[in-house]
Amino acid sequence: MPTPKTQPLDIDAHLQARLGLLAKKQGASLADFAESVLRSYADEAERATSEQAEDEGRWQRYLETGVSVPFETVRAKLRGFAAEAARKADPW
């Protein structure tokens, strides 16, 4: 049996009321809903930080080598992805 959660954060009363309504609509406790929201936000923030580091690495490689992917190559790849997604979305 999971241990009951205590509220470790001081949340503004108006925000707490909003979160409480959303939690109730999802059939969750305020603590569980808030934890879920914070977990999602943390996951997104970590992903963004990782992508930013990856982008910086790519930029540094470009500065060192001068090698890049031509625009037409990127556009063709994106069109291929779009066509594949369209086929998956509408199999008829």
Description:
- It is built from 3 helices and no strands.
- The chain is an all-alpha fold and 92 residues long.
| Individual helix count | 3
Indicate the proportion of strand residues.
under 5%
Distance between the ends: 48 Å
Largest sheet: number of strands, sense, barrel closure: none
Shape: elongated
Q: Using DSSP, what is the number of strands?
A: 0
Low-confidence parts lasting 5 or more residues at pLDDT below 50?
none
Question: How would you spell out the order of helices and strands?
Answer: HHH
Judged by helices, strands and strand pairing, the structural class is: mainly alpha
Mean pLDDT: 92
Q: Report Rg.
A: 22 Å
Give the oligomer, counting copies of the same chain as homo and different chains as hetero. Answer: single chain
Assign a percent range to the helix content.
Answer: over 70%
Compact description:
The protein is mainly α and 92 residues long. It has helices at residues 13-25, 30-65, 71-89. Helix 1 packs across helix 2.
